[in-house]
Amino acid sequence: MMLPASMALVREAFPDAARRARALGVWAVGGAVSALVGQPLGGLATSIDWRWVFSINVPVGAAMLLALLAVAPSPTRPARFDAAGQVLSVLGLSALVYGLIEGGHAGFGAGPVVAALAVAAAALAAFVAVQARGRHPMMPLNLFHARGFRLALPVGFAFMVANYGHVFLVSLFLQQQLDLSPTHAGLVFIPAALFAIAGNLTSGPVTNRFGARVPVVLGQSCMVVGLLALIPATAQRSPWLVALCLIPIGVGGSLAMPSVTSVVLEGVPSERAGTASAVFNTFRQVGGAVAIAVFGALIADPDTFTGGLRTSLLVAATLLTVTAVLSTRIQPRAHVG
């Protein structure tokens, strides 16, 4: 609920494309800082009692509620509630996520898993039909007329497969295979998070200078390099080498995502920014769910953990390679300062 609204606030506050590109880079720094603080803090909290990890967002959320008091109210417009679309989307996505997660450990041939995935397919197909025919759709299909928007969706999906996937996999590898404590495992991610902050701040100027296509393609390519480098690095069993391989993943993601977000926001009218952001974020979150479910299934057996880890990294790298090639079709934009 928060992420699409925050993207819409950026679109509202910065109608100029050049200023918005820089603002999106600063906006994305929040994710990099959270990774910098969250990994070691989460590891420390887990060392004390894993239940404490759920308390981390409480003070942050309270601070943000206070900060929002300084933000001017956004303009509103009448909009009817798309009840049918809401019900079908919740049913479809819930069944999809359940089927993927349960399939990861029960097997994708299990009866409940097959039933859940069938319900998901039927509900999501019905959702698209309702959106096409409804007078007040929650996801207007004409959003997909914008070429940049269509290209951005698979990029967001692939990014989250790789991002959620590699954190999930590497965290388990460091603790289960290298016997690191949760705190020490969290520290391995700090160099990548530091470089990600620099990548976020660089993304805006690079986008303004070369257009979105260059940072999006370059960023995904950097992530591919890091993911592929992790495959032989796991055989060396060195936390330092793993930390080094994580850096291009952090840099690449931080360079690409603000730029691809600008593609999403530029391709739609300002009043549709929230809706477009929500659709984009939905594709991202489904990518994260798919990564955890599928990769979790591949590493579930301790005897084949390493092989499953390397297969998962290769799958993520392959998916990003495909979307990097697709991203070359993003419309180049002239220098905007």
TrEMBL record:
PROSITE patterns in alphabetical order: MFS
GO MF: transmembrane transporter activity
Pfam families tied to this protein: MFS_1
Keyword Phosphoprotein: no
Membrane topology: Multi-pass membrane protein
Keyword Hydrolase tagged: no
Record-annotated Major facilitator superfamily (MFS) profile domain positions: 1-335
Chain segments annotated as transmembrane: 21-38, 50-71, 83-101, 107-130, 151-173, 185-202, 214-234, 240-265, 277-300, 312-330
Any one GO cellular component localisation term in the record: plasma membrane
Compartments, record wording: Cell membrane
Keyword terms: Membrane, Transmembrane, Transmembrane helix, Transport
Protein's recorded name: Drug:proton antiporter
Origin organism lineage: Bacteria, Bacillati, Actinomycetota, Actinomycetes, Kineosporiales
